């Protein structure tokens, strides 16, 4: 086995490790509200999320192509494999740090920021596709704003529709419906998040000459989907606690509104081939729903910490990827 193939194997391993970590880091996205309202028991919720993540990951590749070709042209990089290694190490480190502190940060931000930083330092500023990078960052910024607004409006509509119903009856019905929205949200999470590792692996295959274009091979789809599902099955209890209990006291009707909103925004982005942060979309939906319930019910200090993490992720992972590239190569 020549040196290029050895490095490529390392890249695939790191990409699947990132996907596995992304799975347990982002498990909370899909199931935090259903667990907190006791619509699902924790273990059942995690198994549901793992299964639906796998199904969603196997069905789409548009986001993978965007990830793999919009930030830089892999065929134009002489040291593309080294760039990808620095990218993945930076994103993995940041995901583990934010998981340790229980902060629902974005794996998407981490990966995009790290890739941009690694390309800038490792290949030169002229190799960075600023237009494609800007489009992705714009989608990452706008999606949580859209999710917040839609979550607020959905919750206001539900309040009007069920204003005269017994709260006990309403919550009982929505607790059952949360099982379906948790499944839907897990599916949409797989359609968007798992494709990011697929895109990075395909990027590496193109830059190493193993592929001639950004078409995701079946084995890449299957391995990334499996890694995501296995990671999801581990569960990210610290982030589940943050999203499910610490932002505001979630009732089944709130959980349904947040899950439906998050799934709608994520799937719309997938159909547009845009990699967005599932974490941001779902957390923002929860914040929007909480604001509609009662503005003062939301613990804005915690929300502020989460938002700060969102904004610092791209620059930190970009710098970290540049440093890692310099140290290793």
UniProtKB/TrEMBL annotation:
Subcellular location: Membrane
Chief location of this protein within or outside the cell: membrane
Flavoprotein as UniProt keyword: no
Highest taxon in the source lineage: Bacteria
Membrane topology according to the record: Multi-pass membrane protein
GO-annotated molecular function: phosphate transmembrane transporter activity
InterPro entries reported in the protein's UniProt record: Phos_transporter (IPR001204)
Keyword Ribosomal protein: no
One cellular-component annotation, GO: membrane
GO terms, biological process: phosphate ion transmembrane transport
Pfam families: PHO4 (PF01384)
Ranges annotated as spanning the membrane: 46-68, 80-101, 107-124, 136-155, 302-328
Keyword set, alphabetical order: Membrane, Transmembrane, Transmembrane helix, Transport
PANTHER family, sorted: PHOSPHATE TRANSPORTER (PTHR11101)
Protein name per Swiss-Prot or TrEMBL: Inorganic phosphate transporter
Organism of this sequence: Paenibacillus glucanolyticus
